[in-house]
Design a protein that fits this description.
By secondary structure, the protein is mostly helical. The protein has helices at residues 16-37, 40-47, 51-54, 56-79, 81-100, 105-132, 139-167, 172-175, 177-191, 205-228, 233-255, 269-299, 304-332, 335-351, 361-387, 395-434, 441-457, 461-503. Helix 7 packs antiparallel against helix 13. The longest helix has 43 residues, at 461-503.
Length: 518
């Protein structure tokens, strides 16, 4: 690996003013992402849009994140972390204002893209700024505190978004960002210190172009694969273009003197292993998180707002556990806290495959809270263990690489579990339907119930039978969906177990000196 011609001095104490700036920015960006999801049905009604067109409000944001994330580290190194963070925060603010002013779906998607450009740069820079403003022996504690904002936002977002949509108006979801963003801009101008620009860099235009095309096509294929069909010409074409573009991207990055993404970091065993573990966790854990609202709303029949209230305690539990994990990490290293956390995640995720149509909400909440504590204990230590082995001069690049891989793997996990759920639901429905008998005592009771319905409502017996069969079919469909989600949780538990095994090979070692060359 080449040697950077810039020395980065590690701070001797935590710069809490700078940390507050990062926490505000992180909280705002993640709060907006989670709150917009619950507004999709309302937006369909307001704009008279189809399901496919309105989904671009979410898909466009996700794809834009993937396009700009790889360049975040390069831009910060080239133009200064403070300057780039402020520009990104400003773009996010402008995008929020334009989203609130949107007059149709197209204008809203365009505004969300502007939001994503800002958010996609802010996310990788957040961790890099924390490393640049925190001594390495305190990094676990500070990242744990930062994790409170990172986990509190998804906890509050769905409930807050549901309340605003129902009682205030969907535009408020976006307008609410503006005062917080303006305050954060003031704090950033006041308290962030500019980093020295690394001049003389040769811009990696081919790397940026190939990564943009490759990640765009890959994530689009993952998001549309379940609905379009994985063997459809559209999805296969996207996957082929992505494979070609990303292959070219790897070749360019390994030969370019100043690559957009520093793939040579994969020579670092601990960093690479931490990314592999994080990727497996992202697939198994976040894919399972994606299933919970589907289970609560489609199977249990609760509203979106109540679904948010049910899952909120678990997100708060994660936020509480992360600072504790950070302090333990600073004293004893990653494995001593990450291994128990991953064990808890594995066991509780497997236990979730027992959820049914009549599972008490109290049991669901309790199990989610215990699982969330495991998440809080394992997520940050695993990531930090790898990042601590990266020289401070390359923290921005490492953060960009980490965020891009997590974005891809989370999307892959959602796509994988959506496919498994749809496939298994069809199998379970067929098996359950074959078990429905039109003879016997239960069938006789059902026939009597239909006769009673026809007499009390004045319907003919034929209409009552059609209604009865519709009720039976719906119940069978709900049972099939519940069992398909249970299958997904078994697979997710297996993925979490793989992460647990890999964590045994994670080495705890002292952070790399900021003066070490890359």
């Amino acid at each position: 690996m080449r040697t950077l011609q810039v020395q980065v001095k590690e701070v001797e104490r935590v710069n809490w003013s700078a940390i507050i700036v990062v926490v505000f920015g992180t909280f705002m960006a993640l709060l907006n992402s989670s709150s917009v999801n619950v507004a999709i049905p309302k937006l369909m009604t307001v704009f008279g849009a189809s399901q496919d067109s309105i989904q671009w409000v979410l898909t466009g944001y996700m794809l834009s994140l993937a396009v700009v994330m790889p360049a975040a580290g390069y831009l910060a190194d080239r133009y200064g972390y403070k300057r780039v963070f402020i520009i990104a925060l400003s773009l996010f603010t402008v995008g929020s204002a334009l989203s609130g002013l949107a007059w149709n779906v197209s204008s809203l998607v365009a505004a969300r893209v502007i939001q994503a450009i800002g958010g996609g740069v802010m996310q990788p820079l957040s961790m890099a700024l924390i490393y640049r403003n925190t001594p390495r022996n305190k990094i676990g504690t500070v990242l744990g505190i930062w994790g409170i904002a990172a986990m509190a936002a998804p906890a509050v977002g769905p409930t807050l978004g549901g309340y605003l949509v129902d009682y205030v108006g969907w535009r408020t979801i976006f307008y609410a960002n503006i005062p917080v963003a303006i305050l954060d801009l003031f704090l950033a101008f006041t308290y962030l210190e500019e980093t020295p620009s690394v001049v003389g860099k040769e811009f990696d235009k081919y790397g940026l172009l190939s990564s943009s095309v490759g990640f765009f096509c890959l994530l689009l294929a993952l998001s549309k694969g379940a609905s379009k069909g994985w063997t459809s010409p559209f999805i296969l074409s996207l996957l082929l273009i992505s494979a070609v573009a990303l292959t070219f991207f790897v070749i360019v990055e390994l030969s370019h003197p100043e690559p957009i993404m520093e793939l040579r970091l994969f020579k670092n065993f601990v960093f690479t292993l931490s990314l592999v573990i994080t990727s497996v966790i992202s697939i198994g854990m976040f894919g399972a998180i994606f299933l919970m609202p589907i289970y609560l709303q489609n199977v249990m029949g609760v509203s979106a707002m109540k679904s948010g209230l049910i899952t909120m305690p678990s997100a708060i539990a994660t936020a509480v556990a992360m600072p504790v994990a950070g302090r333990i990490f600073d004293k004893y290293g990653a494995k001593i806290v990450a291994l128990p956390g991953l064990a808890v995640i594995t066991v509780t995720t497997y236990m979730m495959h027992r959820f049914s149509l009549v599972t008490p909400f109290s049991w669901i909440i309790w199990l989610l809270v215990v699982r969330a504590i495991g998440m809080g204990l394992s997520l940050m230590p695993v990531t930090t263990a790898g990042t601590n082995t990266v020289p401070l001069t390359l923290i921005g690049r490492a953060s960009s690489l980490n965020n891009v891989i997590r974005q891809v793997m989370s999307s892959f996990g959602i796509a994988m579990f959506t496919t498994i759920m749809n496939t298994r639901q069809a199998v379970h429905f067929t098996n359950l339907a074959q078990g429905v008998s039109l003879s016997g005592s239960q069938a006789a009771g059902f026939q009597a119930w239909m006769a009673h319905i026809s007499q009390s409502t004045g319907w003919t017996l034929g209409v009552a039978k059609v209604l009865g069969l519709a009720v039976v079919t719906k119940h069978v469909a709900l049972l099939a969906m519940a069992e398909s989600i249970a299958d997904c949780y078994e697979v997710a538990a297996g993925m979490c177990f793989v992460a647990l095994v890999l964590c045994f090979f994670l080495r705890d070692q002292r952070p790399v000196s900021p003066r070490l060359s890359s």
